[in-house]
Amino acid sequence: MKTLEEKFETLLTEEVKPGVVLVTLNRPDRYNAMTNTMFIELERLAWGLETEDECRVVILTGAGKAFCSGYDLADADELPHLGALGMLDQQERAARALTAIRSLRVPVIAAVNGAAAGGGLALALAADIRLAGTSAKFNAAFVRIGLSAGDLGTSWLLTRLIGPAKTSEICFTGRVVESAEAADLGLVNSVSTDDVVADALALAEQIVANSPGGVQLSKRALQANLEVGSYAAAIELENRGQALLTRSPDMAEALTAFKEKRTPVFRGR
C-alpha cells in the first residue's frame, strides 16, 4: 500500500497481515499524548487508506505503556489565549482527525494496551470495536482540567455504548474505569489476558475472510442507523445496501463456493 510508505512523526504504520494495517501512536515518552501534528497525520493517514482497496481492517494501538493519554498538556498553556475563533480552529482540527478515523469505510479495532484518557478515550470510542489489555484503563478526564466531556464525540458515542446514567457518572466524576469494569459496561468487547494486539489481529483475520463489500456496507448501515430517527428509515438504508451487494460478483462467488463446498475467493468488486 502506497500510503504506508509515507513517513509520519507520530505514527508507525505496517501491513501486518494481508489487508490488515496496524497503526501505532508513537510518542511513548509522552504516553502517546496528542499534538496538532498527530491530528494532522491521523487525518492524512485516513484519507490515504480510503484510497487503498487492499486495506480491509485497521488496528489502532499505542507504543509503550499507554494507548493515548489525551491532548499533550505541555502544549495546553496556549489554549486559554487563542481566542474564540482560534480555539474553534484548534478543536475542529482535532475533531477532523477523529472523524476521519471513525469514517474509514473499513472496520477499525482499537487495541487498548494502557491508559486511554480524555482525547485518548475519544479515539478509542471512534473505533468500531475495542479490545482491552489487562492494564487498560479509561478516563473521561475533561472535567479535571476545566473542560467538558462534550469533546471529540465522547458525549455522543459513550452514551450510546453504555447508557446515559453511567456516562454521566463517569464524565461528572472523571474517575478511572479499569479494564474489567469496562468489559462489564460494554465499553470494550473483551479483555485480553495476554497480548491485546495479537487478539485484535486474530479478530481482524476473521473479518478479512468475509466479503469486502459486505463488511463495508455493514459498517455504513450500523453507523448511519445510529443517527436515523425511525425503523422505516433504517429499513430503507438496509434495502439499498442489499440491492447494491447482490450486483457484486462476490455474492455469486459465495453462492457458488457454498454449492461446491469450498472457501469463497472474494474480489471486493
Describe this structure in words.
The structure is a single chain. It is built from ten helices and nine strands. The strands form two sheets. It has a six-stranded mixed β-sheet, sandwiched between helices. Strands 5-7-8 form a three-stranded mixed β-sheet. With 269 residues, it is an alpha/beta fold. The mean pLDDT is 91. Helix 4 crosses helix 5. The protein is globular and about 65 Å long. Helix 1 links the parallel strand 2 and strand 3.
How would you summarize what this structure contains?
With 269 residues, the chain is of the alpha/beta class. Helices cover 45% and strands 15% of the residues. Strand 3 (57-62), helix 2 and strand 4 form a beta-alpha-beta unit.
List the helices and strands and how they pair.
Blueprint lengths: L10 E7 L2 E6 L10 H15 L6 E6 L21 H19 L5 E5 L2 E3 L1 H8 L2 E5 L3 E3 L14 H9 L1 H10 L2 E3 H7 L4 E3 L3 H13 L3 H13 L6 H15 L3 H12 L9
Parallel strand pairs: 2-3, 3-4, 4-6, 5-7, 6-9
Antiparallel strand pairs: 1-2, 7-8
Helix pairs in contact: 1-2, 4-5, 8-9
* Topology, number of strands: 9
Structural class: alpha/beta
Tally the helices: what do you get? 10
Helix content: 40-55%
Ends distance: 18 Å
Strand content: 15-25%
User: Which spans of ≥5 residues are poorly predicted at pLDDT below 50?
Assistant: none
Mean pLDDT: 91
The largest pleated sheet is described as: 6 strands, mixed
The Cα radius of gyration reads 19 Å
H-E string: EEHEHEEHEEHHEHEHHHH
Overall geometry: globular
Cross-sheet strand order for the largest sheet: 1-2-3-4-6-9
